[in-house]
Design brief:
Radius of gyration: 71 Å
Number of helices: 4
Protein name: KIRREL protein
Pfam family, one: Ig_3
InterPro entries: CD80_C2-set (IPR013162), Cell_adhesion_signaling (IPR051275), Ig-like_dom (IPR007110), Ig-like_dom_sf (IPR036179), Ig-like_fold (IPR013783), Ig_I-set (IPR013098), Ig_sub (IPR003599), Ig_sub2 (IPR003598)
Strand content: 35-45%
Distance between the termini: 198 Å
Keywords: Disulfide bond, Glycoprotein, Immunoglobulin domain, Membrane, Signal, Transmembrane, Transmembrane helix
Helix content: under 10%
Subcellular location: Membrane
């Protein structure tokens, strides 16, 4: 039925174009039909215009279904009651208007004439919106971390059929699969997640259905927010907090969990500070003290294992404080060795401790150490504890030194002119302080006398100084007899200390006499030694180039014992004072000991030396042995052979000159100075020298 009208139309076109005797210019498209899309129910106009058409030349529209002829010229087939040809004929317009477009209007359209080659077909798409957004199934409730997830998205209606896609937020997920249900216009897309993590919590998974014509119909979207439950984790923004004592401190632990976790704060090794406030993730301490230092633990729990734990260390800075148990006063003994005093202080940062002697610039490290305690150590010492070089604390400790007296150094030799005034000083430091210093005088002969303020010409004064006591002895109108050693002695409950001061008197005549006497003694000793050597050679006692030259023969004559006042330890004397040897070993020789002077007269002559011609020709012992330097005559008797005579030792006694008369010496010394061993007048010394010269001549 449709083929007949089409054939008639084409016959008419051929007759009009071929049989017509009129010749015209060739026609062409002025406007070609274009492919387009339109929403169902709207009106669409497909344009078509020619230029140069002959009058009464037919223009045909063909369209769906199967390119049926819809119009000829401006006449439209009755079957297409929603179609009509519109436009101005004068312009050659043959536009096709379709009203209330339906889905069956979708297809290809063609506008043509016999004189012009047909243009390309125009496709009309009628868009039918979806019935609603796509539907998602799965993950309707919360999921636990570690489980798997299956989601399914299904579209409902719409033409063209929508394309489905999964998005995580704005990011396209390319792991999804799409399919079409059988016997249905619905499309389905699925998504599978094998293992959920806490990072999937709150993910916005969207299923988007897009028909491809966004200007006509918008894409439809359905979203699903994932809820993933996971155990708590804790992060500590400030693991260590430093704060000064008295300030506030905030300790914070951030907790990540789903569902929300409960947070509990504790202090390791103790309870929370008094007045502390727990506010969820924060522990607030309004006013910290040094006792609040320590490690604080935050614990989070939401019913899912494991429980999360975090730690925050609180360090409180506070100024140094010195231990109050340290004694304010310490008493030590004089001359004590290795004394130390330690100062202990607490503070944060750890304080640096030093010692300082108060009101001085002297400083020592801690502990304060003295190798030996002296009285000048006594004083107030200050322990100084500092931290950061700004804050510091001090504590005073007094060191009190007690012990026996200590007589300080000073002049040990004082020289003055005869007739002048001599002052001898004795500086005493002691605790407790002695009542008074005791002065003694030892003359040049070794006799000692106690000095009293009542002695004529002697003054003893004492006065207190900052360091102790000073005792002064003043000797007025000094004489030669006043020379000697002055002893200052101080005693308290701990012991005694003394100091010797020698007083030398210049301008004395007796000093010259003493020098001359010593010279005479030296000459006499030398002469006696020479005579002995010559005598030994004559008797054959000296051996040369023989082994006997190095031997010492034992004398047959008994030797006198060494006087007790001249013994040396280990040389012939035991503890009881009894002599056990008759010879004294000195420098490799055997020297006869001189007789004891105990009980002898002050001018008694000494022993007889065996082997000499005349024993009574020796100078007196008082001038030989007393003034002989030690060891001077030791080698004289080395090779002297003693006589084998059995005669006893002969003691020769020479009448001494009368002793010098004692003098009052103004009554200066108690008991008189003559009792102390003071030599006689100048005449007495001259008589003794004459006697020595006579004996030397006889030798």
């Amino acid at each position: 039925m449709d083929a007949l009208p089409r054939a008639i139309a084409w016959i008419l076109l051929l007759w009009t174009g071929v049989l017509s005797p009129v010749t015209v210019e060739s026609a062409f498209y002025q406007s070609r039909p274009q492919s387009t899309a339109v929403l169902q129910g709207e009106t669409i106009v497909l344009s078509c215009a020619f230029s140069g058409l002959m009058k009464d030349e037919a223009v045909i529209w063909e369209g769906p279904p199967n390119y049926r002829i819809m119009s000829n010229g401006r006449s439209v087939s009755p079957a297409f009651n929603r179609h009509r040809v519109v436009g101005k004929p004068s312009r050659g317009e043959f536009n096709l208007e379709i009203q209330d477009v339906q889905r069956e209007d979708t297809g290809g359209y063609r506008c043509s004439t016999l004189s012009v080659e047909a243009a390309s077909d125009a496709v009309l798409t009628v868009v039918v919106p979806m019935e609603g957004p796509p539907a998602i199934t799965g993950a309707e409730t919360s999921q636990e971390a570690g489980s798997e997830l299956y989601l399914r998205c299904k579209s409902r209606g719409g033409y063209p059929e929508p394309r489905l896609a999964w998005y995580n937020g704005t990011r396209l997920l390319r792991t999804a699969k799409s399919s079409e249900e059988d016997n249905s216009e619905r499309r389905v897309i699925e998504m599978f997640i094998p293992r959920l993590t806490k990072w999937d919590n709150g993910a916005n998974l969207s299923c988007v259905a897009d028909q491809g014509f966004v200007k006509i119909v918008k894409p439809r979207t359905t979203s699903r927010i994932l809820r993933v439950n996971y155990p708590p984790t804790i992060s500590v923004p400030s693991p260590s907090i430093h704060v000064k004592e008295g300030q506030s401190a905030n300790l914070t632990c951030y907790v990540d969990s789903n569902p929300r976790a409960d947070i509990t704060w504790t202090k390791m090794g103790g309870g929370l500070p008094i007045g502390s406030i727990q506010r969820d993730k924060t522990l607030q301490i309004p006013r910290v003290s040094k006792l609040d230092s320590g490690v604080y633990k935050c614990e989070a729990e939401n019913g899912l294992s494991p429980t999360a734990v975090g730690a925050v260390t609180l360090e409180v800075f506070y100024p140094p404080k010195i231990d109050s148990s340290m004694d304010a006063k310490v008493t030590v003994l004089f001359n004590q060795d290795d004394f130390s005093l330690k100062c202990q202080a607490d503070g944060n940062p750890k304080p640096h401790i030093r010692w300082r002697r108060k009101d001085t610039a002297l400083r020592w490290e801690n502990p304060l150490r003295f190798h030996r305690i002296r009285y000048d150590v006594e004083g107030i010492y200050q322990c100084i504890a500092t931290n950061d070089g700004v804050q510091y604390a001090t504590r005073d400790v007094e060191i009190d030194v007690v012990g026996q007296p200590d007589i300080r150094g000073g002049q040990s030799v004082v020289t003055t002119n005869s007739g002048g005034t001599a002052r001898l000083y004795c500086d005493i430091v002691a605790d407790p302080v002695p009542e008074k210093a005791k002065w003694m005088w030892r003359n040049n002969q070794g006799a000692e006398t106690i000095l009293l303020p009542t002695n004529n010409g002697i003054m003893i004064n004492e006065h207190t100084t900052e360091e102790g006591t000073t005792s002064i002895v003043t000797v007025q109108e000094v004489r030669e007899e006043d020379g000697g050693v002055y002893i200052c002695k101080a005693t308290n409950m701990f012991g005694t200390d003394q100091k010797e001061i020698r007083l030398n008197v210049k301008g004395s005549r007796s000093s010259l006499v003493a020098i001359i006497s010593v010279s005479v003694v030296v000459i006499v000793l030398a002469a006696a030694a020479l005579v002995g050597v010559l005598f030994a050679k004559r008797r054959g006692w000296i051996f040369r180039n023989t082994p006997q030259a190095n031997k010492v023969r034992t004398p047959s004559r008994p030797m006198p014992p060494l006087p007790k006042h001249a013994r040396k330890p280990g040389h012939g004397t035991n503890d009881s004072g009894v002599e056990d040897l008759e010879l004294q070993e000195m420098d490799g020789t055997l020297k006869p000991r001189p007789p004891s002077r105990v009980g002898k007269d002050w001018a008694a002559i000494g022993l007889t030396y065996g082997g000499l011609a005349h024993t009574n020709t020796l100078p007196p012992y008082s001038t030989v042995e007393r003034h002989r330097p030690e060891g001077e005559d030791g080698g004289v008797y080395t090779a002297i052979r003693e006589e084998t005579s059995t005669t006893d030792t002969v003691m020769v006694h020479v009448e001494p000159p009368p002793p010098p008369p004692s003098k009052d010496l103004k009554g200066r010394w108690k008991g008189g100075r003559g009792q102390a061993g003071v030599r006689g007048s100048t005449a007495d010394h001259e008589e003794e020298n004459v006697l020595n010269e006579i004996q030397a001549d006889s030798v």
